[in-house]
Amino acid sequence: MAAQFGETSTTDEVLAGVDLTGKRILVTGVSAGLGVETARVLAAHGAQVVGAARDLAKAKAATEVVRAEARNGGGLELVELDLASLKSVRACADALVADGRPFDVVIANAGVMATPFGKTSDGFETQFGTNHLGHFVLVNRIASLMKPGSRLVNLASAGHRFCDVDLEDPNFDHTEYAPFVAYGRSKTANILFAVEFDRRHRAGGVRAVAVHPGGIQTELGRHMNPGDIQALLDSIAAATPSGTPAFSWKTIPQGAATSVWAGVVAPADVVGGLYCEDCHIAELQEDGDMRGGVRAYALNPETAKALWAKSEEMVGETF
């Protein structure tokens, strides 16, 4: 990779000089935050972006900047997708398959964080059902549209460090619910899904990667009050080794940079099957530091296979 990027790199810096004319890219969650910024910079470099969102009216208003800055044939079309409803997920996927146009990149960006205990319309715990199972069904149903050279980018999080997946009790039927434990499980699942999708598809030239965007103040934190946020920051600080620079929030363009870097800039063979942060491949990290690195359990190929099988069982489909 000729250019070196890092924690403060922005989407515009990462894509400087990159021509995406003729590329077709799916981005979920384009009604706010990272999804809008990701769509904006891709369309500005010539990509045809398909933006998926639950609330199309909100997404249309939020993505005016995407249409305004589209260049070189780039553009945006919106499709309806509620990841908390498999009926909606399947309808969206079926419509995309019926349309038949392939995707060069799929960026599974949408998600929820630290929600109160609840269930999706299909009875799954909200965060696992929305963040993992919804994308699991969507991506697998449109996998036929991903041709050799295409890539899946799953947005995960440093939150995966809270815990591994629990395949015995994914819906907290027998475990006391804790919002960040549920979030951690779902984000670990996002990484493991990329690991197994990559294993299954790399022989055909399709790769998958998981990314951590960094700490960004977006609508993702809408279920947290200021006290919750401060408590989280305090816990991160307590686990951060002495001498490490203090935590600072990323801007939205900085947060979306790793998604586009992993999706269209980094060589697929370099990042395929891995977890990236700050526009580089994350190192394995087994101490208590929450600031960087990836837990080994999130890249465990056997757990990834087991999660795939459990996910198929839960959604009632085999891929």
CATH architecture grouping: 3-Layer(aba) Sandwich
The percent range for strand residues is 5-15%
Main sheet overview: 8 strands, mixed
Shape descriptor: globular
C-alpha Rg, in Å? 18 Å
Number of separate structural domains: 1
**Overall pLDDT score:** 92
- Helical residues, percent: 25-40%
N→C terminal distance: 34 Å
Uncertain spans, ≥5 residues at pLDDT below 50? none
Number of helices: 12
User: How many strands in all?
Assistant: 8
What is the string of helix and strand elements?
HEHEHHEHEHEHEHHHHEEH
Q: Structural class, judged by helices and strands?
A: alpha/beta
Please report the first level of CATH classification, the CATH class: Alpha Beta
- Looking at this structure, what is the CATH superfamily? NAD(P)-binding Rossmann-like Domain
Strand order of the largest sheet: 3-2-1-4-5-6-7-8
* CATH topology title: Rossmann fold
Structure commentary:
By secondary structure, this protein is α/β, with parallel strands linked by helices. It has a single domain (11-313), classed as Rossmann fold (3-Layer(aba) Sandwich). Helices cover 40% and strands 14% of the residues. The protein contains twelve helices and eight strands. The chain has helices spanning 11-14, 33-44, 56-62, 64-69, 86-99, 126-141, 179-201, 226-238, 252-255, 257-265, 268-271, 301-315; strands at residues 24-28, 48-53, 75-80, 103-108, 146-155, 207-212, 275-277, 280-281. Strands 3-2-1-4-5-6-7-8 form an eight-stranded mixed β-sheet, sandwiched between helices. α2 (33-44) links the parallel β1 and β2 (48-53). The mean pLDDT is 92.
